[in-house]
Every structure is written in structure tokens, then in C-alpha cells.
Design brief:
The complex is a heterodimer of chains A (108) and B (92). Chain A is mainly α. Chain A has one domain. Chain A contains four helices and no strands. In chain A, helix 1 packs antiparallel against helix 3. The radius of gyration of chain A is 19 Å and the shape is elongated. Chain B is mainly α. Chain B is built from three helices and no strands. In chain B, helix 2 packs antiparallel against helix 3. Classes of the chains: A mainly alpha (108), B mainly alpha (92).
């Protein structure tokens, strides 16, 4: 029973990681491509972490939550990486004189 | 470990390897430098997930430290590379 739950969580996470990689490979523009890896660093990592917690808790007959540290670390670091990389990409495009994506905020 | 779980772990690892191969293709192809940094960051995350799945496979919590280190080094290297793209130098 426990093994089935862990197996389903792991398979779902594998499919999500592959979906993220397909998005990274197929999407046409860099700013579109930035969306895809977020799937791997949020939902796929959450599912693997949940599977790990369920597996080790069932094996040791006590709640083992230390894998949760990875989720905390990832949820702090991923937005920082994304924002810094997006700013770098905007800067480099402006330097090269290429077309920029429209600014947020609509009519202004 | 029951046979269904072992099969599921193998299939999951194969899916991760496919994802990493697509990330590697983007890393080699990527038209601009920021595409390569993005692909490298993605591959760091997937390698960390591989470590977590191996921890379940071998019933050992030693892999957890490896995954934690991989997440931290992935963050540091991605931010350093993005800073380098932004400024031309990492530490001012």
C-alpha cells in the first residue's frame, strides 16, 4: 500500500520533469522557455519529497521530515535565480537592440 | 522493497534521464547565453531529483546530503552566471 503511493508519486514527478524538459526544448522564445523549468523545481520536487517522506516514515515507523529542507531551500532560491536571470536576459536584449517583450501593466 | 516500486523507480529514472538529455540539447543548441544558463539550472534540479529517488532506491538517507548540496551549488552557480551575464563580472 505504502509502496504503491510512493510509486505513483515518483511516476507523476518523472512525467512532470519530462514535460518541463519538453517545454524547455520546444518553446520558441527565451522568455517563454523560462516558464517550463519552474514545473520541475516546484511540483516535481514536491512530489519526490512527499514520496521520500512517506517511504522513510513508513520504514522507520516515525515521522522523518528532514527531506523537507530541500523544499524550503528550493522555494527560497528558485525565484531569486529566475528574477536575476530574467533581468540579465532583458539587459542583454536591450544591449543587442533586439525586440523586447511588451512591458507588464497594459496601457501606460 | 516490492517489485512494483522497483519498476516505478526504474521508469522514473529513465524519465529523468530523458529530461536531462533534452536539457543537454538545449544547453548545446541554445541560441543565447541565457538559454544555456537556464538549461544548466534545470539540469541541476533534475540531478537533485535523481539523488532523492536513489535515496529511496537504496534505502539510505546519505543521498539526502548530496541532494541538499546539489541544490545549494545549483543556486550559487546559476546566480553567479546570471550576474556575469548582467555585469560582466561576478563580484564587484
Amino acid at each position: 500500500m505504502i509502496d504503491t503511493v510512493v510509486a505513483v508519486l515518483l511516476l507523476a514527478s518523472g512525467c512532470l520533469a519530462l514535460t518541463a524538459a519538453l517545454g524547455l526544448w520546444r518553446l520558441p522564445d527565451f522568455f517563454l522557455r523560462m516558464h517550463a523549468p519552474a514545473l520541475a523545481s516546484t511540483l516535481a520536487s514536491w512530489l519526490v519529497t512527499l514520496g521520500s517522506i512517506v517511504h522513510f516514515s513508513a520504514r522507520e515507523h516515525s515521522l522523518s521530515l528532514h527531506v523537507w529542507l530541500i523544499i524550503i531551500l528550493l522555494s527560497i532560491t528558485t525565484p531569486v535565480t529566475t528574477v536575476v536571470l530574467a533581468r540579465a536576459a532583458l539587459f542583454r536584449r536591450r544591449q543587442a537592440g533586439d525586440a523586447l517583450p511588451p512591458p507588464l501593466g497594459g496601457e501606460r | 522493497m516490492s517489485p512494483p516500486l522497483a519498476v516505478a523507480i526504474s521508469v522514473t529514472l529513465v524519465l529523468y534521464v530523458l529530461a536531462m538529455a533534452l536539457g543537454l540539447l538545449r544547453l548545446m543548441r541554445g541560441p543565447s547565453a541565457q538559454d544555456r544558463v537556464l538549461a544548466l539550472d534545470f539540469m541541476y534540479v533534475v540531478a537533485m531529483l535523481v539523488m532523492l529517488v536513489l535515496a529511496i532506491r537504496y534505502d539510505s538517507s546519505m543521498y539526502f546530503e548530496g541532494a541538499l548540496l546539489m541544490a545549494m551549488f545549483g543556486f550559487v552557480s546559476s546566480v553567479a552566471l546570471a550576474r556575469f551575464l548582467l555585469r560582466g563580472e561576478v563580484i564587484e
